[in-house]
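Render this sequence as a predicted structure.
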Amino acid sequence: MPLIKALLLEDNSDDRMLITRKLRSVAEVQAASDKDEFQRLLNLHSFDIVLVDFSVPRLSGADAIALIKQTNPNLPVIIITGSISHRAARAACRLGANDFVIKGPEDEEYERLDLAVVNAVEAHKTRMAQLRDQRLELLGDRTTGICHDLRNILGTVQLGCGILRDRVDGDDKLILDRMEDAVKRGEQLMAQVLAFARGTNGQAFKDVTIEFLMGEIGQVLRGGTFPNIQHTITVAPGAGKVSCDSNQLHQVLLNLLVNARDAMPGGGRIDVTAQ
């Protein structure tokens, strides 16, 4: 288990040494003896926990907690002090401290310092994991709503293609074919996103021929999105089938083609070979 990264604010050199020694089995401690050094370390490094003496010259415990919360609102804080009343302890906890420990090698309270540090850090990790889960759940709900809205938009485009098909001919019908293909692919992508947001495995893999995949890529290259690009598509004899989600693989290949096109703004040549 890696050592906990702790920042200690303590103006007494003997107490700094005592606390550092007490925590050496669980934490790597960086110490500050005054406000300026404390603030510098707090801004410069990332810590798992901060230990604060409640009565440092020029920096009260309350002010130290405020500085910590400005830098990282969720960072756990433990007050270490020679003496503290229950009222002061409750006040410190209201300000954002997670715990308080009475310092001193002969004090029973001090004996639990290392355990208090470990518990505070573990509780913080658990709390952060819960918050991440909540955010992911909210993101999944939001994603579901967006996908349904996009499906409605794609449905409008598909309906328009159907209406226009009887009114056009020749090359214009090829344009409608590409638009309808794009709509179908968009619907497949939305289905994948919804499956992921709902925590399912999505579309099962199917055996797809290389010729089919390359044929789809050829349609893309012949479309209007690749102007001034010459191309060849070659499938080696004996090429077998691929067990895949054809829509995902198509997206990967399309990304490669778009990157190649963007690298040749003045036009050029793309050769696609599958074997």
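Summary. The chain has a mean pLDDT of 83. The chain is about 55% helix and 20% strand.
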